[in-house]
Every structure is written in structure tokens, then in C-alpha cells.
Amino acid sequence: MFFKLMKELPQMFVIALLIWGVVLWIFYKNHQKANVSFLQKHRTTIIAVLLGLVLTVTDIWLFVSYIPSNFKKNPVADSTQLSPDLLLDSTWKDTSHAITTTAVAKDSLKKVDSTLIKQAGKNHITKKASIKFFSKGPAEDIEATNSNVACSFNDKTGELKFTGLIRGFQFENELMQEHFNDKDYMNSDVYPKTSFTGKMGLPANFSIEKEGAYSVSVEGPLTIRGVTKSTKVTGTIIIAGKSVALKSVFKIKRADFNINIDEVAEELEITVTAVLN
Questions:
Q1: How far apart are CA 91 and CA 102, in angstroms?
Q2: Which residues contact 208 (CB under 8 A, 6 or more apart)?
Q3: For residues 35-44, average pLDDT
Q4: How far apart are CA 274 and CA 262, in angstroms?
Q5: 127 and 156 in a common domain
Q6: pTM for the whole thing?
Q7: Which helix H or strand E contains 1, and what residues bound it?
């Protein structure tokens, strides 16, 4: 296209040069006249300049209009690159076989999509999972909940992920919440997130299309306060309609994650719940 454009450009300039060459010639001839005013000399020159401008603009307009019809892609070549929509809307017309392929093609694509989903599984997600922790303290109990935890679950591979912000944990006591985030406790400015990535052991009778409750176990790295530790927990997965609900209650030792606070019990009870679409 570039070389073709370069080939056509001189034609436009040649036409423009011819137009303004004529204008200059008229100017020169008129300028030779003596004993007349400048306006009288160049009356025809002014007309020639105006006419030259009109012809030049016309020349450019014709050239620009010429480009789309002469430099667009080859329509024959483009016709071989059929989009899926065109394939779906295609119809084979024959005097002896009047077969419309649209419905067949759409049905085939649906079957292919369904097969791929069953093979790879579907990712069920939510940004409203909940993590609650409870600690029995010598002076008072410590309890907080984060209800804005991101969670994803693959119903084929059993892959499970949780990610939550430490500052997302809400306490009834504002002072307790402030202490929870400072550097002596969770140090949330340095370690802003907690995360878990695990592989769920799905039972043999598990089916995402079969409603019911299934006991499961999941194991993977749990990261709290910058420390990552392999963790194995048990829980329940509930299939109800198009929703997938997860629940697990387990305990962790605070010392495993460098949380060395005497006011907090040695073990923390963690409750995780999630309803995914």
C-alpha cells in the first residue's frame, strides 16, 4: 500500500504545479503592463489565483477520495477470512437439499463449550467471602470479621484461593482494632494481605450438578504476617442450585506466624465461609 501511495502522489503534485504554473505565467504577463495601477494590472491574476485555489482543493479532494477505493484490502482475500458469526449465519441452498446450517452450527458450538467446561471446570468466584477469628484472652475475648475477602474455586481441579486485607478485619472495640493493625501485632502497613492457595480433595461422588453437602479437605500454603506455612483443614462444600457454599472451622497457632502477643491465646479459631456463583 505504501509504495502504491508513493506512486500516486506525484500525479497530485504535477496537477497542482501545472495549475500554479499557469497562475504564475498570468502574473508575469500582467506585471509587464505599463502605465496602469497594480489592481488594473493584476485583475486577471486575482481571478487566476482564486481559480487556482479552487482547482487545487478539488485536486486534493479527488486524490483523498481516491484512496479508499484504491488502497483498501482485496475483497476477494478478505472473503476467505470468515468470522464465527458469518459461519453461523451461512445457509446451504440447493434445489434438492434445502438445509440451513445455522441451528446445527449453534448447537455444535454449545456442545463444544459444554464439553470444554466439563473438562477444565468452572471457576466460581466472590468478593464477599468471610473470615472470622476468635481468641480467648485472659482479660477479654478477641474477635473480628472480614467480610470482603476474594475467593475462587474450580469445581473440576479443586483449586481454592482466598485473599483478604488485614485492615478489612472489623472489631467492636475501635482501640482493639487500632492495636491489631500496628507494628507490634499484625503490622498491616508492611504485611497488608493474608492469602491461602490450596487444592481441595473432592470426594468421588462430588458433582457440581448434584445438590448436597460434601465433606472435603484442602491443603496449601497459608500466608499471615509475611510468614507462609503449609496448612491442611477440613470443611464442607454445599451445592444448592447455581450456588456453591464453602465453610471451614479450624485452628492455627499464632507463634507459627510470628504473632507473639501474650494477650492473645496460643491458638486462634478461624471460621471461613463463602457463597460463590
A1: 7
A2: 122, 155, 239, 244
A3: 73
A4: 31
A5: yes
A6: 0.57
A7: none
Give the other-Cβ count within 10 Å of 86's Cβ.
Answer: 10
138 and 153 share one domain? yes
The cell for 126 is 466472590
Q: Helix crossing, 2-31 with 43-71: angle to 10°?
A: 170
Grid coordinates standing for 170? 472489623
Q: Is 31 helix (H, G, I), strand (E, B) or coil?
A: helix
Domain count, the chain: 3
pLDDT tens for each residue of 216-253: 999 999 999 999 999 999 999 999 988 999 999 999 99
Read off the CATH number of the domain in which 153 is found. Answer: 2.40.128.110
Distances (CA, A) of 74 to 63, 68, 83: 20, 12, 17
Do residues 65 and 111 share a domain?
no
Residue 198 and residue 207 in contact, taking contact as beta carbons nearer than 8 Å: no
Q: Which domain holds residue 148?
A: 121-276
Grid coordinates representing 99 are 438445509
Q: Phi/psi class of residue 18: alpha, beta or left (left: φ > 0; alpha: ψ in -120 to 50)? A: alpha
Helix (H, G, I), strand (E, B) or coil at 41: helix
Which three cell numbers mark 206? 462430588
Phi, psi of 219 (to 5 degrees): -135, 140
